[in-house]
Each structure stands twice: as C-alpha cells, then as structure tokens.
Amino acid sequence: MVARRKVAVVGVALSDCGRVDDATPYALHAQAARRALADAGLDRSLVDGFASAGLGTLAPIEVAEYLGLRPTWVDSTSVGGSTWEVMAAHAADAIAAGHARVVLLAYGSTARADVRAGRRTGTLSFGTRGPLQFEAPYGHTLIAKYAMAARRHMIEYGTTIEQLAQVAVQARANAALNPEAMFRTPVTVDDVLAGPMIADPFTKLHCCVRSDGGAAVLLAAEEYARDCRTAPVWVLGSGEHISHSAMSEWPDFTVSPAAVSGRLAFDRAGVRPSEIDFAEIYDAFTYMTLVTLEDLGFCGKGEGGAFVEKGRLRVEGGELPVNTDGGGLSAQHPGMRGLFLLVEAVRQLRGECGARQVRRVDGSLPRLTVASGTGGWFCSSGTVVLGAG
Fold first, then answer.
1. In this structure, are residues 32 and 109 in contact, taking their beta carbons and an 8 Å threshold?
2. Which of 122, 185, 229, 381 is the most buried (most CB within 10 A)?
3. Which tens digits make up the pLDDT trace of 8-49?
4. Cα-atom radius of gyration of the chain, to the nearest Å?
C-alpha cells in the first residue's frame, strides 16, 4: 500500500471584495487565483487539480479554461455554502492518495453588482422543482426557513432574540479590526433589534451582507509545501454530511448537519473542540453561528445563547474568537462563502492578521482552528480542522 502524503494549505488570497462594479465573476476568480499562487510562490504549471462551483454552464470547465488550466483532477461538487470545505476535503484526499500534487480551489461572484445593475434579483428561493414544489406554495423563502429554525430553538431552549443579536454585535466588533471588511461601524444589541423586520425573528442585522468578491486556496502535497514562501498549514481532518432538502424531512430544526461533519473532522484530526484556538463558521444568519457552535461541541445543545452572550466570540478578549474577519454578517458575503472561511483560518494560523490577530493566553500564535461551512438551509455541512506548521 502506498503511504498517504501529508497535505498542506500553501497559498490563500481574496480578490477585490465588497463593492466591485467593474469586474466579471471570471475576473474575480482569476484575480484571487493569481494572488494565491503568488502567496504560495508556486508556478502555475504545478497545478494539476482544480475545483470550483457556481459559475458557468459546465462548471468548473469554463473557469479552468479561463484560468488557462488543464487539470487531471477536478471537482465540481456543489452543496451551497459548505461546498468549499467539502472540496478541500476531497482535494486533500486526492493529494494524499497521489492523484494530484497541487489543487486550486477558486470562487468569484458579483452578487451585489448584479442586483444593483438589474442583471438578477435577490435570491428568495431555490426554485420549485423536485421536492421543493411541495413547500413552495406556503411561501418558504430561503430566509424564512432559517427564521423558523431559529424560532424553534427559542421555543425549545429559551434562547432569546438578544442572545442572537449578540452574534451580530460581536461579528461587527471583529470587522472593526479588519480594514477590508465591508461594514466596520460598531453596533449594539439595541441597533440589531431596532432594524427592519426581514423574517421573524430576524431583523436586517441578523442577516448577512450582500457583496461581490472571490477567494482562492491552494493545497499541496508535503514535498511541494517545503518549497513555498509561506509556512504550511496542515489539513488534519475533515468531515462532510448532508441532511435534507425539504424542511418536512429535517428531523430537528435545532440540530444542523455540522453535528455529524464536526464529529468526523475532530475524530479524524485527533483533537477535541476544547483544543481549538478560534473558529470560522458560516454565518448567513446569526442563528447559524449559534447552533453550529453547539453542534461542533463548543457548548451543549441548547446552551448556545448563554455561550455567545458573554462576548466569547470577540477577537479582543474572547475565549473562542469566531469569524475573526467579521464574517458574512459584516465582512463580505458574495454567495457561497465557505472558501472565505478557509482563507481567514490560514491567515490567522500564519499570524498575518494585524489588529485582528488571535493570540493564545501566553501571547503565542494560534495552533489549531476549525472551519465549518453550511449549505442550503442547514442542508449540508463541511468541516475542516487545520493546524499550524
């Protein structure tokens, strides 16, 4: 049997993000990819694997062609926001098995600019084909599904709207330390509660921003990691899980698929949640952060409200800094945001985050992190545990 190689993230980058009115999604893919290659110090000719989703009739063939790549390993898995954690897991397995040497994950979207220019409308639903046709007549928009799940958690466990608002407040506090975040002005719980109602119980600040932007991540076999200009960040373990498409098939609105993907990732990495220094969690809505913290094991089921209300998610003074760049609630959210979680996680482990840099109690750089993406309306989850080189 051939020994499995260790796999590292060797390059990460964002494209221009926020308000980008003069670029196509293809251009944002390319910009992020070029920057990630430069970050790693690797030549494009070494890239023999490519993964992407969300763009083109034949994704990711069109994007690979635009980038001038001819990969011999490819992945187009598309499971919403968790796509990138799932793809990272697939890429790491392929590299470890010797099927690829360097894999590029790339994403780009002009979600905000397209709405502004009238090229598309806001995404209220995913359509009415297949099983979704049985729920569509009842007005189940995407945000309504999350809102119902949040309300169920409030009823079951006494979680309060003020506790959910704390997630938004602390995300904004972290964004205030990030010069690239889209929104940096601090907000209070009262500000969150006073906003316009979007879907009960969510007001505007309970919901992610809409932005443009792209991201890219390079994974490489250990022998190539030694030649890179940056310190390797090792993929220690991963897990993935899909749960449901129709809300009627979701067994428990208070449990996300991260309960499975997280357990698998931690078990495979050989670490415990208590050893994690910070976490990057998909946060299209405040409830996503709260319930994912529970399901990853950072607190007990139903204890998420009490956990987040004590300021634990802040970079400055928090016991478990979460979404250290400001997350989708404040930094940027151009659609399937899971790749941005991996970029921020790697930058933090490498000590590159300036004012928002996470430090351990003794002042040293963090050593372990987890990135957990969510897709659909808690339909899918991908979780990756990363360790510093």
1. no
2. 381
3. 999 999 999 999 999 999 999 999 999 999 999 999 999 999
4. 19
